Each structure stands twice: as C-alpha cells, then as structure tokens.
Amino acid sequence: MLFHNSFSLYRKDPEVAALLAKSYIGMDEEIKGVNILYEALKQNSMSYALLHVQADFLLTKGKTEYALKLAKQAVNCAPSEFVTWAKLTEVYIALGDYESALLTLNSCPMFTYNERDMHRMPTPAKTHLPIKPEIVNAGLDEDSGRDNEVDVALLRLPAPSLRGTFSKAYSLLTRLVAKIGWDELLKCRSSVFVMEEEYRLQKAAEEEHHKKNQKSAFDNETKPPPSADPINEVKTNGVNNLNYSIPKIAISGESDEDKENEDSNASSEKKLQKDDAVESLTSADETFETSLPNHNEVPAEVNSLESTTGESRSLQEIGESTVVDEHSTDSEALEEVNLEDDKETSEKKSFEETSVSEPISFKGPELEKPLQAANEEKNDSPSQHEEPNKETVTKKDYAFSFNNKRLCERWLDNLFMVLYEDLRVYTLWRSEMSHYKAHQLLYRKAGAEWEILGDLASRLHHKEEAKEAYQRCLDFKFSPKAWLKLLEYYAEEGDVQRTLTAVVKLTVYHERWYHEIIYPTAVCHNLNKIIRVQGLSKIHYNLISMNLSPAVDKLVSRYMILAETFKIPGSDF
User: Which of 300, 326, 524, 570 has its CA 20 to 30 A from that of 510?
Assistant: First the structure.
C-alpha cells in the first residue's frame, strides 16, 4: 500500500523518485532502486537529488571515481545549493584529495540559519506534569542540580552554537582533521589558500612595482631628446685638432634632399664655431678659389666646389679621408666621450629636477628586498629591450599567490578558529587524564562537564573517548543526550544488551515528559540498525530476559511491532 502510493506520487512528480529509490536501496532491493533512478533521470536529467542518490549508492560500493563524476554533475545542475557542494566535498574526502576538498568547502554557498516561523508561547510561570506510577517505579533519576558547576572554558566553546549550513560545514572540516590531523590540515590550508603574510608581501610588491613604473615614466618624460647628428658633436682626431667640427661637403653625385640636409647642418655648424677659431683663419682669401690649407688646418667656410672638376675631386678625397680617419683611428675615444656627456647630462638633469629615490626592480626568484635593491642600484639606466623581460620576471615572482591560490572565505576562516578551540580543549583534557593515570590519581569532573567533554570528543570523531566521557556522565546524573549518543555507539558495535538498556531508559524518559513517539525516532532508527544485523527474534528474546515491568515492556514492545509491520530487513528471522 505504501509503495503503491509512492508510485502514484512518482507519476505526478518525478522528484519523488529520489526518495523511492533510496527506500528500495535501504530495503536491499537495489535492482528496483537503480531502475527507478534510470527511468527518472531520463525524464529529468538535471535533478541533483537523483544524482546524489546514485553517488551515495556508488560510495557504498567503493566506486569513488564514478561518484565524483556524479557529484560534479550535481554541482553543475544546482550550483547555488549547499548540499551539492557538501556532497562533492564528501566525495573528495573519500578519495583522499584533501586539497580539493578544502577548495570545494570554501566554495559552498552559506545561508543564514532561520528557525521555524512558529508562534512562540509565553513561558509559563509554573508547570506540573503528573508522573505515572509505572514511571516512578522504573527508577528514572533525573538531574538533581548537585553538579551544575561547569568550567567556564567548557561553556564558552563556540562549536555547539553553530546552526544550519555552518554546522554541516564544520562537521566536514572535523572529518578532514580526523583523517589527516591538525598539522597536515594546516599544510593543506596554506597550500591552497593565500595566507596573511603572503597577502602582505604581495601588496607590498605591487606597491613597489607601481612606484617603479611611475618613476620610469617620469624619467622618460624628463630625459633630453637624443642629438640629430651625433657625429657633429664629437671632437676631431689628433690630425685635425680644432675646436669645431668638420663640415660635410656636398658633391655633385648626391641628391637634392641630401644637399639640403647637409646645407642645414653646415649653417648650424657655422653658428656654433668659436671666435678664436674664426680669428685663426687667414683673412687674405675667403673664397674657395684659393689654395687648400695644409694638413693641420681645415677651412671654415666652403661656398662652391663645382667650378673646376679637379678641385672638386681633390676636396672630395680629402673630406672622405678625414671622415674615415676619425671613425677608424679614434672610435673608442668617441664612445667614451658620448657616454661621459650622457652621464653628465643625466646627473645634471636629475640634480636640477628631483631628488626622488631610484626605482626598484626585482630580479630572480628570490623575494629578499635587500638583494632586490642592490640589483637595482647596479642598473640605473636599463635599456629599452630589457624592460619587457623585467616586467615578466616581476609578474612571475609576485603573482604566484593569486594565480595559484585562492582567498579563504571569512566564514571558513572562523570555522578554523572554532576547530582550533575544540582541539585545544580536547588536548588539554587528554593530557590531564594521562597525567592523573600516570600518578594513579582519580580524575574528577562534574556530570555536566563530562557531558560537554563527550560532545567535544564526538564532534572531533573520537568515538572511544566520547563513549568514556558519556559513561562517566551517567555515573553522576541522568542525561538523555548521553544515553542517545551511547545508543548510537552500541548499535554500531552490535552490543545487543547495552543497546536495549539505552532503549529502555530513553523510552521511559520520553513517556515521563509526554513526548509523542513518532516513527522514525532516533531510538527506533538505532534499534532497527541492530535488528538488521541480529534479527528481530533475538532482540525480542533479549528484551524478555531483562525482566522489565509490564508497563515498561509494553512501551518498548511497540518498536518491535513497528519493525514487523513495516517489514524492515531482519524482521523475518
């Protein structure tokens, strides 16, 4: 009847197929469950709920690689849902890819927890719930208030106050630390997220690089333009030892454009000639028809050479020999003069205009600032063809943090601090326990403190330590939370006698406070787990052997009747 109604709902809404398939898989009807998933995915391939059921089924079979593909597909189908990212994180943890698990957890969309929108009843001034006689005889000893003194450090732990998606994300984070340990988790965190020190160094390097670019642009703007004719600015060689440069002579073989350029250069050179050079010339003949001077002198003005062919040829040869001589015999001296002139000009310009410190350029993979400054001092005037290489090296050195790492979300960073507090208190507790055991002393705590320590160990997935703390808590007071946790541990271990004891205690407690027993409760769920393994008949016989009162036996027997009615696995043997 139940599955008939489920199939009718499935025809109306294909989303019900996820619940129906999950139910079949839970009943060991895996073939029916897989067929339902197959048919439902053909109708709605973008349903992340169906993909999650498939992923969970594959994880139980050990097919983690296939489960990873399904989890990624679910994220693509519903990227704004928290459950899809959480499922992908769980698959990465199962695969052992802890860095990817951290990155996926960091990408989870978080939502503020809101309680149910229900009308709140005012707190009553006095409450009286009468206790039934059979409950009184059951020996239910509730907390009497004699152990309400709790350590403040235990009360201030922030983890119990987490709700909603933050609580689920914290549980995934504790699974990570239970798998690999705190130190390894910090290593994974520093390898995938940008740490505070790296962020500070990155910002400092970017600011220095920005200042260097501004300084380089300022120097390029204030640098004097290069000379149009650098040959005219150099001195002559030892043969023509004059204080003025040699004018170029136009010959008939040159083009008109070359003649105009040379005439303009000759006119500018005549203006730059000094007075002593002009006075040293002979005043007798100033025209070009006179004889040429000796090899120690060069005429200052040349007006025309086209009157005679012979004179033109001889003057051409003299001019060419002079130019060849100055480039061949004193080229090194010319280069030294050029560099000295540029250096004097740049130093004079920098002294007159600004006193700003030299820009810093970083070379090599190292990030040490003294070495970077020393490298920059050696290269005050880098060439233009080296600047692109420096920019590439700078980007390579200082952009690695933001290219290969991600910024950690604030909420995840806060969860790391919450986890640190839990681990700190847990480590202190275990150290104290070891110290007292080594000296054969009794380690005393109040019942409420043992309950908090049990919750702490349970959050950190230390099952044995949590079980020990809950058992010590029950030695001091009755705690339904401690009994429920112990019921989970006993059911997982298959301890029938202790499981039934916890079931009896919790059933009587719920009846005492008039709590409605609605299937499936946590008590029924854990009892069904042990029924699947041990069988309903064995559980029922063990319950009879406990020799309970008829009223209490009737309360507990309802779970047995419920398991037989719904035919859960194990109810037929």
Answer: 570
Which of 496, 416, 426 is closest to 456 using CA atoms?
Answer: 426
| Alpha carbons 210 and 395: distance in angstroms, whole number | 12
Q: Output phi, psi for 362, to 5 deg.
A: -100, 135
Query: Rounded to whole angstroms, how far apart are CA atoms 52 and 44?
Result: 14
- The set of residues, in sequence order, having a beta carbon less than 8 Å from that of 32 and lying 6+ positions away, is 24
| CA distances to 129, 388, 406 from 394, in Å | 76, 10, 20
The whole-angstrom separation of Cα 265 and Cα 259 is 10
Q: Which of 21, 39, 18 is nearest to 30 (CA)?
A: 21
Distance CA 24, CA 283 (A): 123
Q: Has residue 1 got a pLDDT over 50? A: no
**End-to-end distance of the chain based on CA atoms, in angstroms?**
23
- Confirm if 486 and 471 have CB atoms less than 8 A apart: yes
To 5 degrees, how large is the angle CA 482–CA 487–CA 489? 100
Residue 406 pairs in a beta bridge with 193
DSSP per-residue string spanning 384-395: GGGHHHHHHHHH
Residue 366 vs residue 471, higher pLDDT: 471
- Counting every residue written for the chain, the total comes to 573
Per-residue H/E/C for 201-261: HHHHHHHHHHHHHHHHHHHHHHCCCCCCCHHHHCCCCCCCCCCCCCCCCCCCCCCHHHHHH
> What tokens appear for 29 in the block?
């009807």
| Segment 122-129 long-range contacts (CB within 8 Å, at least 24 positions apart) | 129/513, 129/514
Strands (E), 368-524: none
Cβ neighbours of residue 337 under 8 Å, at least 6 residues apart?
234, 235
Q: What 3-state class would DSSP assign to 406?
A: strand
What pLDDT is recorded for position 373?
28
CB contact at 8 A, 483 and 474: yes
**How far from 104 is each of 186, 402, 453, 546, CA to CA, in Å?**
16, 17, 30, 50
Rounded Cα–Cα distance for residues 205 and 54 (Å): 49
The proportion of the chain whose per-residue pLDDT surpasses 90, expressed as a percent, equals 41
Q: What span, in angstroms and rounded, lies between the C-alpha atoms of 504 and 545?
A: 13
CA distance 195 to 191: 9
Structure tokens at 65: 């690689």
Kindly state the average pLDDT of the residues 417-427.
95
Q: If DSSP codes are grouped into helix, strand and coil, which group holds residue 412? A: helix
28-38 average pLDDT score: 91
Greatest alpha-carbon span in the chain = 151
Regarding pTM above 0.70, the answer is no
Helix residue ranges per DSSP H, 246-330:
256-272, 275-280, 309-329
Bridge partners, residue 193, by sequence: 406
Determine the residue type at 518: I
Closest C-alpha among 444, 454, 441, 465 to residue 147: 444
Q: Is the dihedral of CA 397, 401, 402, 403 positive or negative?
A: positive
